[in-house]
Design brief:
Structural class: mainly alpha
Number of helices: 19
Order of helices and strands: HHHHHHHHHEEEHHEEEHHHHHHHH
Shape: globular
Largest sheet: 2 strands, antiparallel
Number of strands: 6
Strand content: under 5%
Distance between the termini: 25 Å
């Protein structure tokens, strides 16, 4: 796809989202306002990135953040990295990095609140471990749990006490636990992927995903190590997770793929149940896991494993069967997300695979913006997609952010994607 067209589509989306709407369509107003996935804070990320890149005015970003804080935000036990005060903190920190003096007082107050929240969560998690119980997904995952908090603190204070405490927890999470007479990985959860009891998952499951599983923990540990922050047994924890994923990877004619989760009967038999090709998304599947494995391999200095991960992503991005299972354009599990992961992975790739990764991007972009489409028409269709919405994780703002990377041919200027643990 022509980069000029991609740039125009991203710009047109941003222009259509220039001013905060009184109410975000398709979502409960009170809940949506506080949610990074589809609320004003996520849309602010688009305008923050554009302003930091010199492509738009800062006033738009400030307006969306102002819209978010017209009423108090939820903090404490009812909040999590994608909801309430922590979600607001991510957006504000992205802006503060590029506007000297902006939001610093508010962020100082927020960081103190998040420190209290994280310490409370860590205390509860270690008590749970001491008692030999299994974790809930929301204890550790990227969206709701300590891994998501780790992404924030790794940016704000890479070697700070909270960052290191979360990393210590992640390392401990990789230690096996004996439950009902069986040895299970420490991240095995007693519920289904929804976090609730599920008759389809008797005995619980081991979640591999980036959004809700051990993939996010792997990425956080890897990113911390690359930034020079390591804790005791850090590399051993990386190797433990990699070995688990090695055990369950499947070979296809396009390379390695990974299941979304492992059920108890599969764990006992050592065999995965047959399944149709699955979409290779960020939240679950091969794309997000390939990026996490690449980051871990780089942190460990394992070039062979790095190239293997990059080849797995190339395979996923060029496999018709996997791409046919991808049915939307969003960041979370759509073509925009695949585009962004491909670009981020290519930035760190071995020379033998970088070209293949970049060569896969135009075809992905052509799904989001079909050839010959008028940029204004394409932007209007994206913004008016009521099912996807206007927001960050599934909707228009996230799509526009993903389109900016190939359009500018440069990595993001801000850390908007740090919450996804892919950079």
């Amino acid at each position: 796809m022509n980069d000029a067209i991609t740039r125009k589509v991203a710009t047109a989306i941003a222009d259509l989202l220039a001013r905060p709407a009184a109410e975000l369509p398709g979502r409960d107003g009170a809940s949506a306002r506080q949610h990074l996935a589809y609320g004003p804070t996520g849309i602010a990320l688009l305008h923050i990135e554009r302003a930091a890149s010199g492509l738009g005015p800062w006033q738009r970003a400030h307006d969306w953040l102002d819209a978010a804080v017209r009423s108090p935000f939820t903090s404490g036990p009812e909040s999590h990295p994608f909801y309430g005060v922590p979600a607001l903190a991510h957006a504000m920190a992205c802006a503060a990095d590029h506007v000297p003096g902006a939001y610093q007082r508010t962020l100082g107050l927020i960081d103190r609140q998040l420190t209290v929240d994280v310490r409370r969560r860590l205390d509860a998690a270690h008590r749970r471990m001491d008692a030999g119980k299994l974790p809930e997904l929301a204890e550790f995952d990227t969206i709701r749990g300590l891994t998501g908090y780790g992404a924030y603190f790794l940016r704000r204070a890479p070697s700070g006490d909270e960052t290191r405490a979360i990393l210590d927890y992640c390392v401990r999470l990789t230690e096996p636990v004996t439950h009902s007479g069986e040895v299970l990985p420490g991240w095995w959860t007693p519920t289904g992927p929804s976090g609730r009891p599920d008759s389809r998952f008797p005995g619980g499951h081991g979640n591999t995903g980036m959004a809700h599983g051990i993939g996010g923990v792997l990425a956080l540990l890897a990113l911390a190590a690359r930034r020079g922050t390591s804790v005791g047994h850090h590399h051993r924890a990386l190797q433990t997770i990699l070995a688990w994923l090695d055990r369950w990877q499947e070979e296809t004619n396009r390379g390695h793929v990974w299941p979304y989760w492992i059920k108890r009967d599969e764990l006992r038999s050592g065999l995965l149940a047959p399944s149709a090709p699955r979409r290779p998304s960020w939240c679950y599947g091969t794309a997000g896991l390939a990026r996490a494995r690449q980051l871990a391999a780089i942190a460990l200095g394992d070039t062979d494993r790095q190239v293997e991960a990059e080849n797995a992503l190339v395979g996923a991005l060029t496999d018709t069967a996997q791409l046919n299972a991808t049915t939307d354009n969003g960041l979370c599990h759509g073509f925009a997300g695949l585009t962004h992961i491909a670009a981020r992975t290519a930035d760190d790739a071995d020379p033998s695979t970088e070209g293949q990764l970049r060569a896969a991007i135009p075809a992905l972009l052509s799904v989001v913006c079909p050839p010959g489409t008028d940029p204004d028409d394409a932007a209007s269709a994206i913004v008016n997609d009521e099912e996807a919405g206007l927001g960050f994780l599934n909707g228009a703002a996230g799509i526009a952010l993903a389109l900016m990377v190939p359009a500018t041919e440069a990595p993001p200027r801000t850390s908007w994607d740090a919450c996804l643990l892919i950079a």
